[in-house]
Specification:
heterotrimer, A mainly alpha, B mainly alpha, C alpha/beta, A: mainly alpha, 11 helices, B: mainly alpha, two-stranded antiparallel sheet, 13 helices, about 75% helix
């Protein structure tokens, strides 16, 4: 057992390429998690604090399901998407719609939606904590195995590649859909002026359910992908990711697909640089300092619209 | 009574600290400033308070003053720097500020005690001192909810442009909001560190933002009475829920959720409504009609 | 193991397992025969029919896992103490309060305990963050309190505070032998410095071990509580071409770091810390295999006192005990012995009896003939290895 275990890391340059790849893969994960949240927030105006819990609980339910039988990757991912979408729609129908129905003004509804989301997020968290006793859980019972590919000295796992591909596809598709399709137009309209949009026949509650399902499905998928990539999650894994996703969305500017893409990769790159170029202890300060600084310079984020409403 | 006090002294003290924490987030909110910096101010107050007790041997009152003033000074700077931000962008910038305070707490070396934090912070803090400090803030809050001050604050929140055209210096009000938030948050942090004798990075995190927000929204966002109601509820709820055993977190979540849905204006709003309804039953219909109109629109939100 | 759950611990922490060391048996023997029989005879007159000891541990929240495991140890000890009539006609009872992994609840439940004049001593928390909030209260109000785990500074602050778990850095040097066997020359460290004990291990214990065996620390990266993806720090450490990597993390981070370390192409030896125990590495599957760390307790130990405890525990619960349970069991016995020696529920007298106890060797689940350093337990420790599905004992301290 002498030296030479780090065979793959021959040159400094290969090393940098490896780190850039790591940052891209991390940013892709942030993107899958944050994209749906950004769409919901920018259009129907719901900032869902339960998003992190939905992400975690989808992965948790998958891990419970795998106790029954060893499902392959695609099936686990599909189940994760369904769990996420269903939970997200439930939160919308049982909580957010009820709040809106009992609100006298939009501002009142907005801030209580934050509280409703916080409350809704505690419930799956409490269940997962109860079952796992706060121990990490994983998807190791799946028949899927991580494989490492080595291309010109660059090591990548199949999960990382899948994450990047999913992120690119989903971001491109949703960006195009929002820009080109009728539904996308309706969503953008409602984000700019809900009253006029509803006069034009846009059905807000149907769109809200649709976008929440989309966001929840992506959260579930992110949960499964991250668990495969990291090996383990804990019931609290959603919390840290939620704060980071807020940061990514705000950084880019609410409602902008390009904005959230840039926000996610900026944060991932900043974190990677700090972790690899310094002793690492200030990583969180740098990430949040960056957000703070960008907002001071650009008060509506990098690509935000000035007139974005909400609170 | 005395036995009850002895057995619950920590919770009783925590309730008053909670009121100040809730106020520190509520004050800017009443001005329409969506700032969560109160959690960061609380951290600054706690660490400054802890340090002056440990290093300079200060007693409770001067230590609370140091914590409050230090946090208010940071609040002033923050208020000026963040002047152009609004809504959730401002919220995120202040949350980033809170999280940075947490990182400084972990990496602050001997000044913050690193990941372990500071401990053994013993002073002459007594319940009467806490009551006086909290009382001062509550009186100030009550005064700001009456007469001219009330109308001006209202104008700044509901229609800043109109307020500006009426000669109200909106920017200055907002900065003052940050400073008062700093005073309240800093005092809360300093008192907390002395009642608990310890402070660590975990005590100043994102969880604090969530807790304070929950307190004021469920309590009632626009009156100090709402903050008091929320602070009492969420400080004592975990204690009360002990009988639920392992599922108390779940019940806690449900309480927050149901309050969010069914109490549109918080506990304080519920109380106001109930009182009005009772009054209406007693009064002749014509009058009660009018009473209804009197209810200020701003109670919503 | 101790410490890890320290402040802040959102991801859980401690886990553990371990090994321990062990030692001897005698638990029962010494318990029943108790060296200090002097007071024993008179106890009947002075101790009330039932003595209730408050237990203030987290049964829910981040440290709930450790707390519920410890709970079994407390219960087991009380049952044994009462079954053997150790306190001569006096029954011991527990009054448990869930501190929910929050310092405020911990301090609050302790002040309730102090307010009850009949309480002679308290079983304190196992989380550092909770314990440092309890200690000043206990010391000021002169209430003897016995902790387990809670390894941070500020937990032991005077004659009234005791800890029945050796802090991990105190026995970490036992890893030297493993490093020597592997011929370690270049060590890289990836550590979650936001956890007090881990910070101490990464800043002091591992560098000290490296120095002992003539190796150098070639790279050291700190990670934070929100760090979930370890590929960047791993990449940085591997660039320094280490021949041993120290992965010092808590909870899920251990599994993730091991998985990503193997995926990055490193197949050499890995040293860790006791929070990797109790199945934390399971989610990493085969990638987790080969992590080696020192711990204070392992059920497989051949120490007679440990074996006795393990038998008793398995008889009662049908599973292997975790270190929390062993430590909790010892903490309860520690209080029982002090009560017997003191022969009264007077707090000052119980404190004096505890002061006398820590001057002598202590035998219990953690091993025979353990010693104290001040009010703090010391154990020799053992080294275990995770083989991908279970922990196995590598070697014990000589």
């Amino acid at each position: 057992m002498g030296g030479g275990h780090a065979a793959a890391h021959g040159t400094t340059r290969g090393h940098t390429v490896q780190e850039v790849f790591g940052a891209v893969s991390l940013g892709s994960l942030y993107l899958i998690f944050a994209l749906g949240m950004s769409v919901v927030w920018g259009s129907v105006g719901i900032l869902n604090f339960a998003h992190g819990a939905i992400f975690m609980f989808s992965a948790f339910l998958c891990s419970q399901l795998l106790q029954a039988f060893a499902a392959p990757f695609l099936l686990v991912a599909l189940v994760g998407i369904i769990f996420g979408a269903v939970m997200s729609v439930l939160v919308q129908v049982l909580v957010f719609q009820q709040i809106v129905a009992r609100s006298t003004s939009e501002r009142s509804a907005d801030i209580r939606i934050l509280i409703g989301g916080i409350g809704a997020g505690i419930i799956p968290l409490a269940i997962a904590q109860h079952v796992t006793k706060n121990q990490p859980f994983g998807l190791q019972e799946s028949s899927f195995r991580t494989t490492i590919w080595e291309v010109f000295g660059l090591r990548m796992s199949n999960v990382q590649v899948a994450t990047i591909v999913v992120a690119v596809v989903v971001a491109t598709a949703s960006g195009l859909w929002l820009a080109r399709s009728r539904g996308g137009l309706a969503l953008r309209a409602i984000g700019v002026d809900p009253e006029v949009a509803s006069m034009m026949g846009v059905d807000r509650s149907r769109l809200a359910i649709g976008t929440m399902a989309f966001a929840g499905g992506l959260a579930g998928l992110a949960g499964v992908l991250l668990t495969f990539q990291l090996g383990a999650l804990t019931p609290h894994s959603g919390d840290a990711l939620l704060v980071k996703a807020f940061a990514c969305v705000i950084l880019g500017g609410v409602g902008s697909t390009l904005g959230v893409v840039v926000g996610c990769f900026t944060l991932a790159a900043a974190e990677t640089v700090v972790l690899t170029q310094t002793s690492g202890q200030w990583v969180e300060a740098v990430a949040f300092g960056l957000i703070f600084a960008i907002l001071v310079i650009r008060p509506v984020g990098l690509f935000g619209r000035q007139e974005v409403r909400r609170v | 009574m005395n036995a009850f006090y002895d057995g619950h002294v920590v919770i009783i003290q925590a309730t008053f600290v909670g009121i100040l924490l809730a106020l520190s987030i509520q004050v800017p909110l009443r001005l329409g400033v969506f700032s969560f910096a109160g959690a960061g101010f609380y951290g600054i107050g706690a660490y400054v308070g802890g340090n002056v007790v440990i290093r300079a041997d200060l007693q409770a009152v001067p230590a609370i003053a140091c914590g409050a003033v230090a946090a208010a000074a940071v609040g002033l700077v923050l208020g000026l720097v963040l002047q152009r931000l609004n809504g959730l962008y401002l919220a995120m910038a202040t949350v980033a500020f809170d999280l940075m305070i947490g990182v400084v707490a972990v990496n602050g070396g001997e000044w913050t005690g690193g990941p372990t934090g500071l401990y053994g912070i013993l002073t002459d803090l007594t319940l009467p001192i806490i009551l006086v400090v909290v009382g001062v803030f509550l009186v100030a809050a009550e005064l700001s909810e009456r007469g001219r001050a009330h109308r001006r604050i209202e104008a700044v929140r509901e229609d800043p442009e109109l307020a500006a055209s009426m000669g109200i210096r909106v920017g200055a009000y907002r900065v003052v909001g940050f400073v008062v938030s700093g005073l309240a948050g800093g005092a809360a942090g300093a008192m907390n560190v002395m009642t608990r004798t310890t402070i660590g990075p975990a005590d100043v995190g994102f969880g604090l933002v969530i807790l304070a927000l929950t307190m004021i929204i469920v309590g009632g966002a626009l009156s100090w009475k709402g903050a008091v109601a929320g602070a009492i509820l969420f400080t004592w709820l975990p204690q009360v829920l002990t009988f639920v055993g392992e599922w108390q977190e779940l019940v806690y979540g449900c309480v927050v959720l149901l309050a969010g849905i069914f109490l549109p204006r918080g506990l304080y709003g519920l109380w106001v409504d109930t009182r009005r309804r009772l009054a209406a039953r007693r009064r002749p219909p014509a009058l009660s009609e009018q009473a209804h109109q009197d209810v200020p629109q701003e109670m919503t939100s | 193991m101790n410490v890890q759950r320290t402040r802040g611990t959102r991801r859980a922490g401690v886990r553990t397992a371990a090994v321990a060391a062990s030692a001897g048996f005698l638990l029962l023997v010494s318990a029943c025969g108790s060296s200090s029989d002097s007071a024993g005879a008179e106890t009947d007159g002075k101790l009330p029919a039932t003595v209730t000891i408050p237990v203030t541990v987290p049964l829910t929240g981040a440290a709930g896992f450790a707390g519920t495991s410890a709970e079994k140890g407390y219960d087991l000890a009380v049952k044994e103490i009462n079954d053997t009539d150790f306190l001569g006609g006096t029954k011991l009872a527990l009054d448990k309060t869930d501190t929910k992994s929050t310092p405020q609840e911990a301090a609050s439940s302790l002040s309730s305990a102090i307010a009850d004049k009949a309480t002679p001593a308290v079983l304190g928390s196992l989380l550092s963050a909770e314990s440092v909030a309890q200690s000043p209260l206990a010391e000021k109000q002169k209430m003897p309190i016995v902790y387990i785990q809670a390894g941070s500074e500020g937990v032991l602050v005077g004659d009234y505070t005791y800890r029945l778990t050796a802090p991990q850095p105190s026995y970490y040097p036992i890893i030297d032998q493993f490093l020597k066997d592997k011929g370690a020359k270049r060590i890289g460290i990836i550590y979650g410095s936001w956890v007090p004990t881990i910070k101490q291990l990464g800043d002091e214990s591992v560098p000290a071990a490296a120095k002992d065996v003539g190796a150098e620390i070639v790279e050291k990266v700190e990670t934070q509580q929100t760090t979930q993806d370890f590929s960047a720090p791993i990449s940085k450490v591997l660039a320094a071409k280490p021949d041993v990597v120290a992965v010092l993390q808590i909870g899920a981070a251990n599994a993730t770091a091991m998985k990503q370390l193997r995926e990055a192409g490193y197949d050499g030896p890995v040293i860790g810390n006791s929070s990797a125990g109790a199945g934390s590495l399971k989610p990493a599957g085969a990638d987790g295999a080969g992590m080696v760390w020192p711990v204070d307790f392992n059920a497989a130990s051949d120490d007679a006192a440990t074996a006795k405890f393990v038998d008793l525990y398995q008889g009662a619960y049908g599973e292997e005990p975790l270190p929390y349970a062993a430590e909790a069991y010892d903490a309860t016995w520690f209080i029982a012995r002090a009560l017997k020696d003191a022969g009264t529920t007077d707090r000052a007298a119980v404190k004096d009896a505890m002061q006398a106890l820590v001057k002598k060797p202590f035998s219990g689940a953690l091993g025979s003939a353990q010693t104290f350093d001040g009010n703090d337990l010391r154990v020799p420790g053992v080294v275990v290895e995770w083989d991908g599905t279970a922990e196995k004992l590598l070697y014990a301290a000589k």
